[in-house]
Design goal:
It comes from Gluconobacter kanchanaburiensis NBRC 103587. InterPro entries: AB_hydrolase_fold. This protein has one domain (about 1-255): Rossmann fold. It is about 35% helix and about 15% strand. The chain contains 8 helices and 9 strands.
Length: about 260
């Protein structure tokens, strides 16, 4: 597919002999091995009778600032990569001819960081975003600057989009053993404030968001779940009953009258 002049390859899987229930858009980790992520998503797709689209964002064209940080703060003449998600969703509907089924976004590690920026700054029509083991989060407050918070965001004080972010259906799913330190991430002050490792940062982000939602008196749409005896391994996360349950719950909710 082509978005904003960028041609992206997309690995696809379609289960046979069942009525398609959802579209799963799966974002790969820092190695951008989208085909591997597509393959690792096949059991989940078969169980939920869902299409998988795994777009490839090559490192050469989408370095850390564009992928993990979503392209924010925006650089002049460069479209933030997080803005690609909405047209990508529309393309998956067009290419599959599935106009009405729900779309669910799933990301692990670097891909989860990308989806964090999508959820905060550039959401599309997805009914749920599954965030698995990212190294950083967008803090739901206006003291921390973009891309780790809402200070300097385009909306006045960032509050309208911040409130929308808190209300979105975001499923944080963490490996209970994902506790190794991240030396590169630990050089970023905003990330260090979020915790010593990915597990701590996820728990911290969820607690901060829940507290902020109560303070602002807005609906809170986030959930948090731990996958037992699992570290920073995408294949195990995608194969977990916790991810399967989250997807099933979202599809059923979207299908109910």
């Amino acid at each position: 597919m082509t978005i904003a002049g960028e041609r992206l390859e997309v690995a696809v899987f379609k289960p046979a002999s069942c009525q398609i229930r959802s579209i799963l858009i799966v974002l790969a980790g820092k190695n951008r091995d989208s085909t591997t992520y597509r393959n690792d998503s096949v059991p989940l797709a078969k169980h939920e009778c869902s299409l998988v689209f795994a777009p490839d964002f090559p490192v050469a064209r989408f370095p850390v600032d564009q992928y993990q940080r979503g392209g924010f703060p925006a650089v002049h003449h460069t479209a933030p990569a997080a803005l690609y998600m909405r047209p990508l969703e529309q393309w998956t509907r067009s290419i599959s001819n599935e106009r009405n089924i729900p779309i669910i976004l799933i990301g692990h590690s670097a891909g989860a960081q990308y989806l964090e920026r999508v959820a905060a700054y550039a959401p599309g029509e997805e009914i749920m975003t599954v965030i698995m083991n990212p190294s950083t989060y967008v803090e739901p407050e206006t003291d921390t600057p973009v891309p780790y918070g809402f200070r300097n965001w385009s909306q006045p004080a960032g509050l309208p989009d911040l409130k929308r972010y808190l209300a979105r259906n975001i499923a944080i799913i963490l490996g209970s053993d994902d506790t190794e330190p991240s030396p590169l991430i630990n050089r970023i002050p905003a990330a260090v404030e979020q915790g010593r490792n990915r597990l701590e940062r996820g728990q911290w982000a969820y607690a901060q968001a829940r507290e902020q939602a109560e303070k602002l008196n807005v609906p809170f749409g986030w959930t948090i779940t731990l996958v037992p005896a699992t570290g920073h391994v995408a294949s195990r996360m995608l194969a977990s009953s916790e991810v399967q349950d989250a997807i099933e719950t979202a599809i059923r909710a979207a299908s109910s009258p």
